[in-house]
Specification:
The complex is a heterodimer of chains A (416) and B (109). Helix content of chain A is 26%, strand content 25%. By secondary structure, chain A is of the alpha/beta class. Chain A folds into 2 domains: 227 residues, FAD/NAD(P)-binding domain, CATH 3.50.50; 148 residues, D-Amino Acid Oxidase, subunit A, domain 2 (D-Amino Acid Oxidase, Chain A, domain 2, 2-Layer Sandwich), CATH 3.30.9.10. Classes of the chains: A alpha/beta (416), B alpha+beta (109).
Chain lengths: 416, 109
């Protein structure tokens, strides 16, 4: 069933009685071509692109809880492509391009809003570094521009420009960055995949991965065994647990990242703003709440809640750049379990077991990567070759001494 | 607030006093070892959901490194102990067994 403005209008006139469930709830079949473990954003996007772009429709997505119950519903909804290194930036630019056409592509309103992202500059060396980054972004075809303090004053007069310690001297802006309604991304991909014949099986925990003579043959689940030619792990914060079922250890630790939202305010922020001298990023949701976050708590945890020192640290970051945030009341805070890789960059790769694939290590940045992660993982699964923008997301890059050390954003970016 | 007892100076330290140091009891593979072993020692992590042995430094205190046994789902602390050991001491294992019967982590049971 396609959605359209006319349909919304007609349903409004007829008591909204004609809407159908957006996807089926099938029982697992005994065998599939590909099983995707994890029904979050990346898993659903993978299934969607497998069916739509690569013609592989005999696919199941198995999800332990309910659809999109993990980080796709627990993030700060920011999209951007402002990376530096050639291993990363083309991938995120592909992702941004897919975001730009996403709603037309899967016929679902994901509220993609390209309201721009500002990375504030607080010192001369930082301006040099951001100028280099801006050039690197342009090499991949992305947009970037450097703003001076006057232009930022016009955009964001509420910032603390003359802060004694971290004066705002400029910003790196990407106008095509912005925010997206995160839950709608999961729902849109789920509906799109379902319409192309993918089985989405919720409340179905994988309890074992069947491996015979080095070949993966299927999975054991709480709803019985399912055989498959290929099994694709895509479990974000739970990647370590899923990999352990295949006797693998990953270069990943699970950490909690907290996020917060204030009470609803009138339109205040023109886009996403990030602090260049601490770790703080903020945007305003369409409901009006200021959505912001900062650092991980710093020690291994699978609890989807964090501790108070980080709450204080994040709020200090907010007060340092926009003191007016202190007048807003905090409405909610929550935590998501991040799969922190050792260099801050992800993995989309085969494993040592034939027919078993891994997609993990997204650290803080999984949400913006959702479309490209799904697209590139689907490419790898369908063709057994990495997509051209994801060739460096290899599981063996540490052994080869080729980590993608993008500004060291991981939990322990190769420094432990 | 996570509070750990420093086994060296005897203080009950808040997490603001402490610096996390990641998984404990990693077996070191140095020069002359297999590449795969060296890579695993440097990068691969157990990352368990449940009982976790980890290193902490009493950074804003006595400065010593020590070990803690902690649950990564409930954040419950089973105990802390000296870093001058290759394996978790028996009393730590007993404390974990009392609360998590049948737990397993690597070869420690």
């Amino acid at each position: 069933m396609g959605y359209s403005a006319f349909k919304v209008f007609w349903q409004g006139l007829t008591g909204n009685k004609g809407w159908q469930p957006a996807w089926r709830e099938p029982d697992p079949r005994p065998q599939y071509d590909i099983i995707i473990i994890g029904g979050g954003g990346h898993g659903l996007a993978t299934a969607y692109y497998l069916a739509k772009e690569f013609g592989v429709r005999n696919v199941a997505v198995v999800e332990k809880g309910w659809l999109g119950s993990g980080n796709i519903g627990r993030n700060t909804t920011i999209i951007r492509a402002n990376y530096l290194l050639p291993g990363n930036q083309p991938f995120y630019e592909l992702s941004l391009k897919l975001w730009e056409n996403l709603e037309q592509d899967f016929n679902y309103n994901a509220m993609v809003s390209q309201r721009s992202i500002l990375n504030l500059i607080h010192s001369d060396p930082q301006r040099d570094a951001f100028a280099r980054r801006a050039n690197a972004m342009r090499l991949s075809g992305a947009d970037s521009e450097l703003l001076g303090p006057d232009e930022i004053r016009a955009l964001c007069p509420f910032l603390d420009f003359d802060n004694a310690r971290f004066p705002i001297q400029g910003a790196l802006r990407q106008k095509r960055g912005g925010t997206v309604r995160h839950d709608a991304v999961a729902w849109g991909y789920a509906r799109g995949a379902d319409m192309h014949g993918v089985d989405i099986i919720q409340n179905c925990e994988v309890t074992g991965i069947d491996i015979t003579d080095g070949v993966c043959t299927g999975v054991q689940t709480t709803r019985g065994p399912i055989r498959a030619k290929k099994v694709a792990m895509c479990a974000a914060g739970s990647s370590g647990r899923v990999a352990a079922l295949a006797d693998m250890r990953l270069p990943i630790e699970s950490h909690v990242l907290q996020a917060f939202v204030t009470e609803g305010l009138k339109p205040t922020l023109p886009g996403v703003i990030t602090f260049g001298a601490g770790h703080f990023y903020v945007s305003q949701s369409d409901k009006g709440g200021l959505v912001f976050g900062g650092d991980i708590d710093g020690y291994n945890t699978y609890a989807q809640r964090g501790n108070l020192p980080v709450v204080e640290d994040v709020c200090e970051g907010g007060m340092a750049i926009m003191p007016m945030i202190g007048r807003a009341r905090l409405l909610r805070g929550w935590g998501g379990v991040m799969d922190m890789s050792m260099d801050g960059s992800p993995f989309i790769d085969k494993t040592g077991t034939q027919g078993l694939y891994v997609n993990a290590g997204w650290c803080y940045g999984g949400f913006k990567a959702t479309p490209a992660s799904g697209y590139c993982y689907a490419h790898l699964l369908a063709k057994d070759q990495p997509h051209e923008v994801a060739t460096q997301f290899r599981l063996d890059r540490f052994r080869r001494g080729a980590p993608i050390d993008e500004k060291g954003v991981g939990a322990q970016p190769n420094l432990h | 607030m996570l509070i750990l007892h420093c086994p060296y100076c005897g203080t009950d330290a808040d997490e603001t006093e402490l610096a996390p140091g990641g998984e404990a009891h990693l077996k070191r593979f140095g020069p002359g070892s297999q590449d795969a072993d060296f890579e695993a020692y440097l990068f691969a992590r157990e990352n368990p959901m449940g009982v976790h042995f980890e290193r902490w430094r009493h950074a804003n205190g006595c400065g010593k490194w020590f070990h803690a046994a902690r649950c990564t789902t409930t954040l419950e602390v089973f105990g802390t102990y000296s870093a001058q050991t290759l394996d978790p001491p028996q009393e730590i294992r007993d404390a974990i067994t009392a609360k998590r019967p049948g737990w397993r982590w690597r070869d420690f049971a």
